[in-house]
Design brief:
alpha+beta
């Protein structure tokens, strides 16, 4: 990816749907974030070629932590290659076989007996990658739920779909806060957001390098920031959203803890939805919908946040976590 950024972007521009996780901004950010938390790390994200032309992209990483290597993608577990729309099915199958051969080789070189994948099952159902790994004996270890907003709907229909209590909260929040969307941002405003994040979390959770990457993503058109201020101009909340050509992703939300009884996140989400509509995006990915019965045993905070986000959702899709033995 570092050697051929234009060809990576060429594939994305020719793909029918581009989840944010495949954008160079997100791959770069996640790699920088993870690199700080493990002992050794390599970003091997690659462009896939057919007849010397870029046909696909594949986020791929290797990390060493707690005495063992693991292969994956920038978010964690391995994700499938993404192909340009005009790539023939025969070519896709051949390239996926090559990718799996790479993984098997890396696992053998680093004494990994298994590798883990994560797959998103959307409107089109499971893809060729899922069939390939299942044929290799993959086992589904966990099923999770992802919630989305269908941005092909009108704003009126999206509002009508909201959880009933949100409608009055949006009216109240609209009177309390001044909201702004930044798809280009002054460093001073961005630093206000960073400092608010620090105060709310009570600790430094990201390095300055990763914050710089976030600021760059906004100014490069790969993300935008929604900011809320009170009547004195003090920043009381904000939300960071990454975007691809077809998808928006709710990445970070920060809100003044003394105002949790006020509608803050509701205004940020609605403002972001309206902005995504102007950008012509197809989906807004809100994130995982945790449930009490999940095998991962979510925390009360995770359950609360997921319940809040679900109040905006129009669709729920599945995410499969699989494990493949070498």
């Amino acid at each position: 990816m570092r050697e051929a950024p234009e060809e990576w972007d060429h594939v994305l521009s020719n793909s029918a749907h581009v989840p944010v996780v495949y954008t160079r901004s997100m791959v770069t950010y996640q790699s920088a974030y993870i690199k700080e938390k493990v002992e050794k790390f390599s970003d091997l994200s690659m462009v896939l070629y057919h007849e010397n032309k870029p046909a696909g992209v594949w986020p791929l990483t290797m990390r060493f932590s707690e005495g063992a290597w693991s292969c994956g993608s920038n978010e964690g577990q391995l994700i499938a290659p993404l192909f340009a729309e005009n790539t023939a099915e025969k070519t896709r199958k051949a390239l996926m076989e090559r990718c799996l051969s790479v993984i098997e080789t890396l696992c053998r070189l680093t004494d990994q007996e298994v590798f883990s994948c994560v797959e998103y099952v959307g409107e089109s159902g499971v893809d060729g990658w899922h069939r390939k790994i299942m044929e290799r004996g993959a086992a589904i270890r966990r099923v999770a739920h992802e919630i989305f907003v269908d941005l092909s709907m009108s704003i009126e229909d999206i509002r009508a779909n909201l959880r009933k209590s949100y409608k009055s909260l949006l009216s109240t929040g609209g009177r309390l806060w001044q909201s702004s969307v930044f798809d280009k941002i002054d460093h001073k405003v961005f630093d206000e957001f960073r400092q608010l994040h620090h105060r709310v979390s009570g600790r430094v959770t990201r390095s300055l390098e990763t914050w710089d990457l976030v600021e760059k993503a906004i100014n490069d058109g790969a993300a935008f920031l929604v900011v809320l201020r009170d009547d004195k101009g003090v920043m009381v909340g904000g939300g960071l959203f990454y975007i691809s050509k077809t998808e928006g992703l709710y990445a970070v939300g920060v809100y003044d803890r003394t105002l949790f009884d006020k509608p803050l996140g509701h205004i940020v989400q609605m403002k972001a939805l309206e902005h995504m509509k102007t950008l012509g995006l197809r989906w807004h990915k809100l994130g995982e919908r945790f449930y009490q019965g999940d095998s991962s045993t979510p925390t009360e905070k995770e359950l609360s946040i997921a319940h809040f986000k679900e109040g905006f959702a129009t669709h729920m899709f599945l995410r499969l976590h699989t494990e493949v033995r070498i």
